[in-house]
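Objective 1.3, modelling of assemblies. Example input:
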Amino acid sequence: MEVSPILSADLAEGVYSVNKNDPVALKIFLSASAFSQKVKPSVLTASVGGRLLRAAKDGFGVCAQGGGDYQGHVFLVFRGTTEANNKADFVTDARIGITISKTGLPVHIGFNHTFNSMLPDIRDFLAKADITGPVHCIGHSLGGAVASLAADWVSRNTSHPVRLYTFGAPRVGTDWFVNRTTVSIGRENMYRVYHKTDPVPMVAMYPFMQAPYGSPGYFIHSSELALTGAAHKMGKYIASLKSKSWEQVADVPDQPYLFDSAVEDWLKSRNWASADSPVFWQWAEAALRYVLKKVIVVVAYSLQTTFVGVLTVADKLAIILEKGLHLAEHISLWVELLIRKLLHALGMKVEASKEAITRSLIRIVLVQLMEKANRQARNALRNL
Amino acid sequence: MLFRWFFLLVGISSIWNCSADSGAAMVSVKEKEMFGKVKEETYVIASPLSGVLLRDGKPMPNARLLRRLTWNGNEEGVVQEFRTDEEGRFELPVHEEGLSLNFLTQFVAKSTVYVASEADENMIWYSSKLTPELNSEIENPVVGLTCDMADDEVIVHGRESSVPNIMTRCRWSSMKKA
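Predicted structure (tokens):
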């Protein structure tokens, strides 16, 4: 049995009150009817931040045994950041590199570090808990990212069914992680909720991706036209989900950029895109993935030696796309269309000839694209 | 499968060169921009609260009340002192702060009220507040609030949520116990 949209959202918000040195707040949180009143809970303590910059200790989540309608279930509820002066949580958010998770998959280094610091407590709690139902992993923002890693770990290391509920969560891992975690947890057990104008789910940008694989998740239309930090607030998610079932939340048309044919139409279209629209980013990433896939299928084996050495992600993608330009027409055409579309959206000069599209130009386009995306996300969030 | 392999190759090797040059902007965020100054806004730390203080049903005149307020960036908090009048009535005013919270920070404020001294057994009110607006910790109008030191503490839903946010010895007409 899954947790309703509003209950999971209330828990994701309520856990923000809990921290390590406040037993009253924990007692109040655990009085929620979803939890058993008999079992002593555990407050997870995470080490937040990077070794290179600064580290801090802060309560980051709660393990609780279910009660009432959730008898035999377990809840792992994680919170995002509440730190105002200590930048440790932002260090976690900014330290975007890729590492291998406890389940052997490539994931965000900062989120993984936070999750690993809590894992002994989670493992200990699960070993002692009376579990006959699902393990519900819930979180907002950074808490949603940690909940995703927790759900992945539980699904691979225990026999308990898992449900994952995230609200405005950033991306946790690359394509490989997203695909494997979708299989492990089960697409139908993943409730990824986000406002269409919330900038956090769009970071970190490609090659990070959102789970479940190949699904838009539960996205909520926003009245705003631009990305806005207000759309990230947990209070806003609660307002959007009130009195709705999961079926009602999911009752939005499929997003067109999920279909290859629609992506092809977008690339071929003479209607030039604007990088100022939130929808542009979904199209741009879908198109980049679509074209890369076409090229990689042909040139993958020749890339191994190319990739040895110090190269950035932009370098690598530029190498691949440039190789694509020299392949057969049915592939090179898509590379050309993609670069022209991105050049135009970024307000750069659109080169007339195919020969003018060099590896260096492709690299510049990619770097500018990602910088613009990060800049838009930051601006939207800062102007709360 | 080939695509999977590619991502592992791109992803893993990027650990080593993520900060090597401007290409790192694709997957990293420049810290100095991220930590940029955020504009200051007004947050209500505690909404007004008024009622009558009792012990065993009898008013406590001229009693000392201490209110400790905490919020993001001030975990130690501030302590404010008030007194009940001759009939045990008290009025705790609104408290606001101008805060510059960074973009991902969830606002959390807590208000704890004690009688005489900050000892657990003297606590009559504890509430947490997660949004900056006035009366967001206790949405229904509080009518006829009485706080009897002899009463047990109860946990209350001060707002429309599955998760309660108040623990108190006080009682009022519209209170919703957890």
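Chain A touches chain B through 86 residues (CB under 8 Å).
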